[in-house]
Amino acid sequence: MNKDLKTSKSITIDASAEKVWDVMTNPEKIKIYLFGTETLTDWQVGSPIIFQGEYNGTQYKDKGNVLEKTDNQLLKYNYWSGFSGLEDKPENYFIVTYIIDKISANEVTFTWQQEGF
Question: For the chain, how many structural domains are there in total?
């Protein structure tokens, strides 16, 4: 895994920061956009995250830990996927960051970042 590789993408969304946050952290909504993935966590800093389900007939159980959280603004966690082909050890976890920047009451800039590939 190359920890120096980083990518990010930002988009403007016509929704409140609270609504975007709910879509990012609500397990039932995550299931809709993440191919039926079941997400198990309380989203508290230091808590584990489990992403599990079935993809193309293969069962998976990926995991990570919540690193930072500011409601309606920032969520950062590390993540390991069995699909990566890498051993489950700390140096093989990548970092995912979601940033919500409020533009107005019903408009935000949403930024997704990933470090490590």
Answer: 1
